TrEMBL record:
The keyword Cell membrane applies. Belongs to the complex I 49 kDa subunit family. NDH-1 shuttles electrons from NADH, via FMN and iron-sulfur (Fe-S) centers, to quinones in the respiratory chain. The immediate electron acceptor for the enzyme in this species is believed to be a menaquinone. Couples the redox reaction to proton translocation (for every two electrons transferred, four hydrogen ions are translocated across the cytoplasmic membrane), and thus conserves the redox energy in a proton gradient. This is NADH-quinone oxidoreductase subunit D. Residues 1-19 have a biased composition (Low complexity). The lineage of its organism: Bacteria, Bacillati, Actinomycetota, Actinomycetes, Kitasatosporales. Its EC number is 7.1.1.-. Pfam families: Complex1_49kDa. Residues 1-20 are annotated as: Disordered.
Length: 393
């Protein structure tokens, strides 16, 4: 006998077997919940799967378990205080999150930041990108059964983590951006230590390449698995490494340059693949990490040429943005991150809407998972490189 879930007949709700014994499961669909607490979901995400034997026939990402109401909290914080809320939704990309919101406020104010601050922001954004990518480069093989890459990835992360902690005082939530520039000047000798950390990470990347991409088991588990087509990626607004692995050649740093990226066009490489599978997504992430290190070196070279100068603007005691609206978007490590700011001329935003990369990216699982085997679900889910806080905001 099987226990089923059935809705009102008038609503035409389908009947699914949720628990079955004997032969009942052979002729009916089974509903399987992955999460909201599950090792493969990167946090409190729930996947509601309908199975036909070992094959997924329907997939529904259920979000909201971690919702903090950040967008409403923005409305009762002034323009200096909202930075502390903005940097937390993607906790692996805190500097990039801060950057987007201060760029929006500066655009509303018509404010130009000092050149030194522009180059420093670009440098720190790329170092933050490397930190984000190294986490997924280590954790994704772990989800498929390989523990060693995680140790190497965290060894490299600690090198960069040290220099970012030294410059900002924060280990995860840096709070180093300010409206008008950065919190303060760099510590003495910091650029030399940053350059050494970049070189150390670059020297360690081949180990990840050999351990993971050179592993036949990893390639067998990821090649041709979880294929996301370019049209589906565009339809769902998928961005970042996931979209570029499907052949969507789009990167805001090149296509709508901000900060100093316009001057780094010769160094910036937009890495793409066409396969759109789990393997392609990992390859794009690894190549982007290499390019981010090259961009960081280019920023360090430029900073060495700049004369000493301020890294921020002097602000009034009470900061008010003029009445109006603006939208600022940046190429965050996980994809496009945007802030739509509406001001009524007060010291707090009237409305601040967040467009986070992970929210759009995870919706594509509806199209991607049906037709795949349950055994491949974890490989596909892990290759989407999302942060649950970035979904629930």
């Amino acid at each position: 006998m099987a226990e089923t879930e059935t809705g009102p007949a008038a609503a035409g709700t389908a009947t699914h077997t949720t628990v079955g014994v004997g032969g009942a499961a052979e002729s009916t669909d089974m509903v399987l919940n992955i999460g909201p607490q599950h090792p493969s979901t990167h946090g409190v995400l729930r996947l509601r799967l309908v199975l036909d034997g070992e094959r997924i026939s329907q997939a529904e990402p259920v979000v909201g378990y971690m919702h903090r109401g950040a967008e409403k909290l923005f409305e009762v914080r002034d323009y200096r205080q909202i930075v502390v809320l903005a940097n937390r939704h993607d906790w692996l990309s805190a500097f990039a999150n801060e950057l987007g919101v201060v760029l929006a406020v500066e655009r509303m104010l018509g404010m130009e930041v000092p050149e030194r601050a522009v180059w420093l922001r670009t440098l720190l954004a790329e170092l933050n990108r490397v930190l984000n990518h190294l986490m997924f480069l280590g954790s994704y093989p772990l989800e498929l059964g390989g523990i060693t890459p995680m140790f190497y990835a965290f060894t490299e992360r600690e090198s960069l983590q040290g220099v970012l902690e030294e410059v900002s005082g924060g280990r995860m939530h840096y709070m180093f951006n300010r409206v008008g520039g950065l919190k303060e000047e760099l510590p003495a000798g910091w650029t030399g230590r940053a350059r050494a950390a970049v070189a150390e990470v670059r020297a360690g990347l081949p180990r990840l390449d050999e351990l993971v991409l050179g592993n036949e088991v990893f390639r067998a588990r990821t090649r041709g698995v979880g294929v996301l087509g370019a049209e589906t990626a565009r339809a769902y607004g998928v961005t970042g490494p996931i979209a570029r692995a499907s052949g969507v050649d789009f990167d805001l740093r090149r296509d709508e340059p901000y900060l100093a990226y316009g001057e780094l066009a010769d160094t910036l490489r937009v890495v793409t693949r066409t396969a759109g599978d789990c393997l392609a997504r990992f390859e794009v992430l690894l190549e982007q990490t290499r390019n981010a290190l090259e961009l960081a070196d280019a920023c360090l070279d430029r900073l060495a040429e700049l004369p000493p100068g301020p890294v921020n603007q002097r602000l009034p005691k009470v900061l008010k943005a003029p009445e109006g609206a603006t939208y600022a978007w940046t190429e965050n490590p996980l994809g496009v991150n945007g802030y739509y700011l509406v001001s009524k001329g007060e010291k707090t935003p009237h409305r601040l809407k967040l467009r986070s990369a992970s929210f759009n990216n995870i919706q594509a699982l509806r199209e991607l998972l049906p037709g795949t085997l349950v055994a491949d679900m974890v490989a596909t889910l892990g290759s989407f490189f999302f942060v649950v806080g970035d979904i629930d905001k």
